[in-house]
Design goal:
This protein has 400 residues and is mostly beta strands. The chain has a single domain, classed as YVTN repeat-like/Quinoprotein amine dehydrogenase (Methylamine Dehydrogenase, Chain H), CATH 2.130.10.10. It is built from 1 helix and 32 strands. The strands form 8 sheets. The protein has a 4-stranded antiparallel sheet with strand order 3-2-1-32, with no helix packed on it. The longest helix has 25 residues. The radius of gyration is 22 Å and the shape is globular.
Amino acid sequence: MRKFLLLAVLVPLVLAGGWYYFHQRALPGYGPLYREFAYISNGKSNTVTVIDLRSFRPVRTLQVGNDPTGIAANPKRNEVYVVNAGSSNVSVIDAEQNKVVATIGVYGRPYFIDVSPDGRRAYVANSGSDNVSVLDLDRRVVAATLPVGGSPGLARVSPDGSTVVVTNRADNTVSIIDTARLAVRAAINICIHPEDIAILPDSSKAFVSCSGSGQVASIALKSEPRPNEPPKYDNDKLLALLDVGKSPVSLALKPDGGELAAFNFDAGTISIIETTGNEVSGSYLIGDQPSRGVVSLDNSRLYISNFGSNNIAVYDIDLGKVVAYLPVGTHPDALALSQNQNYLLVLDSGSGDLAVIQKRQPNKKFEPSEYSLMTIIPVGMQPNQIVVKSFRATKLADGR
């Protein structure tokens, strides 16, 4: 009996040790100056958790403002920005040192932030004051404050940097900002309770999910025509309202811009939209309360967090079907992929942790599945958003 008990204790430990050893060896090799971190805003802890994605270990917990929500990385410099809804300011994190180096005051109840492609400006929609703060990131000051519609939720910058689209939830409009003039050039009535925004890679169209009417709006954006070519669309105009499912709360665009997924929270479905023709090609049952999604860079896989069923659905875009369901923690929500696309990072808002799912080549004998839950890392209370920042450090350091 004692032998049996000893084996019962030792075998799981050996297996666990082998699992840890295998996965540590399976991690890709990095140069000494390479850094890759995940930054997670913890709304109820007033912190940001920093996780080193070379080792999948938390390395810092940073105190920021009250009720941090939105978070974004600068594409041109090693900085990360955190919007603090409760204290109406933005914390600036130096990614090389992983410390807060500045705080920029904005207006009432900001929730999200987006950074221009050149890394010099950021745009913050202030839902409590019906305006957008334009941040000069070189000087770390507010460069302009632009009035928009009622309760703006999100301000998204176009890939060419010329336009910012703002969803105004209280008056069912979008405001279109011209970034060269720092002025609102149009306000367009669309559908009920506009929320998320996706803009095509060529910056010609924006798609907006409207959770109150079960629709996605397609909007033509002003763009400079190429030489010897007419403009694609009329300037800043509603093109179509597309019926999807109940409560489309967010959108995910394929990197090539050809298709868009809307996540219909109260219908348990996703709707696939053909962006060129403004057509819904189909809607598919996906899980209980799908809330967010992310598409792999090769346009082949769509990962969906099912908030109500505590799992991730893996949707094969070419096959048009779900190929795996992966259990995670409680109320999965925000998602991100590692730089090499081999790790899916899942924020579990209910259990306050980060689930790391590994994608690999299946091995028939030992690992028949393409995906496995690699680890779960505790973060803070009510994690909201996640962003990954990878870069080459300017000098050797401990990575913290």
